[in-house]
Task: structure prediction
Amino acid sequence: MIHSNKSFFTCFVLTLVLSPLVAQAQVKQVSLRVDGLACPFCAYGLEKKVAKLEGYTANTYTVKINEGVVSFDWRRDKPLDLKAVETAVDKAGFTLRGVTGRFAGTLEKREDQYVLRLLAPFDQRFVLQELSKTGAGDPRPKSAPALETPTNRLRERLERMSANGNAVEIVGRVHPRPDAQGADSIEVRELKVLEPPAQSAGRFVFEVKGLRCGGCVAKVVQALGSLVEVLHVQGDAEASRVVIWTESESPDLAALEQKVASLGFDVRRLGAADERSTRGAGE
Amino acid sequence: MSNYRTLAIVLVLGVSSSAVAHEPVFSLGPETIWEGGVGIETKFEFEDARGDQLSALHYEIIYGVTSDLSLTFELPQILELEEDGETEHGLGDIEFRAKYQFFKKDLLGAQHKVSGIFGVKAPTGDDDAVPALSTGTTDFLLGVSYGYESRSWYQFLTVRYRLRTERGDLDPGDRLFIDAAIGFRPWQREYTEWDLVALLEMNVELEFDSEFRSTTLPNVGGNTVWLGPTILFSPNPQWMFKGGVQLSVYEDLNGDQEHSEFRAVFAIEFHF
Result:
């Protein structure tokens, strides 16, 4: 069972601020609030267990013992398995109090809920929860000032971002699904449009005919964003354009075009001259 | 008289204990190792107790069956056992221990733990050597240990009972150990940095009467209280160097026995 803890997010946000961002992974970073960590020697067993998680990225393990926070990067091609994380902590002899992550994906609105679908070669979705101001949902002390993201403002932003269709980045605490049928949920702490990577080897612009709405953009972003060589995707329905940032200078562009075409869109790569003639996404 | 000698040897060989992580070095604590974890420890022990001197190395391996259950195997190598001018050396009695942590409460930066301890010591040492390197008996150890470990403070309380079986006409008295320790960490270091913890250990050792052919031996048994500091230093999360010295601060021995003086332990532990 994952328990709540008041100082969790404070510790986690500090950890994120102090940690360099990795490439555009979908579960970018995971932080665990662990109770029982008292000394470096004893904490070594936790590193051994965390390192065996399928999604653990080698040599990214950091611990802030005083804050009880363990952080590490998550592999792009592995879904986040909360049960496995909890088991690893338990087998190390400690108690997991909470899991927080930085996630990238597209937003979907389903009835009155927003769902984050990770940009990944697998299908993992999280129901987004608003950070409640009281009770178990709020890990902060009751004396803490009002949240920077009030519920109504968050919903407005989610609405706007889901309509746009582009990828977003969310930092939040993960809660396990209430039953086998549901999805895990994220208690949203931070929400922003996913920015292009600061460094990428290639940037390519495509004209995609048929992009009519945010839903279409989200489809394309999902399809391309799940490809390993693609670091980032931005779409613009109004301009019928999609911009792709890649790891290599010369990715398999035909495969990228084919991926978009398989969704039922007409796609054409734009050259530099074509780009200058129009304005759109990624500018 | 030779029976007294045997008892003295039993005394010396019987006080050995072995620690894991930040446990007291003259006792056993509640610590277990993570599931699948392996720890190895080499400990040098010197004791000047009741007229006999012992220097020994203890090789110990601990394995975590689960995070709550650890198994330990200990092999002592007697470097020198001196008695009345005669010395002997060789392998001593091996011991197997199981430790089960049946209570644990984790807090931010702290843990409360309680473990049960069960041990068996087999008479694998040379019983015919002079002086003997073995008690010649199969002994059992039962105990319970509480520990509180935090970023700043440590507390331990352990009660152990060593049940000693008969050896021929000799029925050695059982032993009861009541161990307490407090400790502190002067500097709160982070994960990859060195770490140091200082402990003050107090061990109360009660030995019940021994009998030879149903007659109580007058000059065997009694109570001793040991007190002394221990330092636990880990240069990184995998290695730990430990050292402790204790003086006998109180003795109430039966009959006419030489007094204990001091004992010391230095150990290196590595886990992976």
The interface with chain B takes residues 5, 7, 35-49, 62-66, 68, 90-95 of chain A (CB under 8 Å). The CA atoms of residues 90 and 96 of chain A lie 7 Å apart. Helices of chain A lie at 8-18, 40-50, 82-91, 151-164, 214-225, 253-261, 272-277. The radius of gyration of chain A is 20 Å.
